[in-house]
Amino acid sequence: MKEKNYRILVVDDQIVILKTIAAAFKDTSYKITTVRNPVEAYQMIEDEQFDIVISDIRMPKMNGLDLLRKIKNHNGMIPVIMITGYTTINNILNAFRYGAFDFFFKPVAQDEIVSAVDRAAAKIERVNSLLAQAAEMKDGA
What we know:
Blueprint lengths: L6 E5 L3 H10 L6 E5 L2 H10 L4 E5 L7 H11 L5 E5 L4 H9 L4 E4 L4 H31 L1
Parallel strand pairs: 1-2, 1-3, 3-4, 4-5
Helix pairs in contact: 1-5, 2-3
């Protein structure tokens, strides 16, 4: 399925979570970048090409829902997977309302987060395939 090495940005203020998620991808083709500061994470998204983002909700300086909204305003096609240790119905509803691809409670099982990223990568592949087909149809018309 994965024709390219997708770049994943993981944002969480807890180092142990960053290490755990990064470890889940050690035997995959995904390229993982971790960052503790959501403000810095957004700057990285503006400056570099990331294909998928995994973000905590509750962080200092900027919460994950605000980061999600900024990412979607910057590039609505980036799948964002939200994680949290602080479960509220509002967090869940707002995450999906703002465009989250998926949502997990901490602690996140490594196979579940890899599976979610695989689904996000498959969606990216599907969109890219549709865009390529549409471009061919337009060129041929």
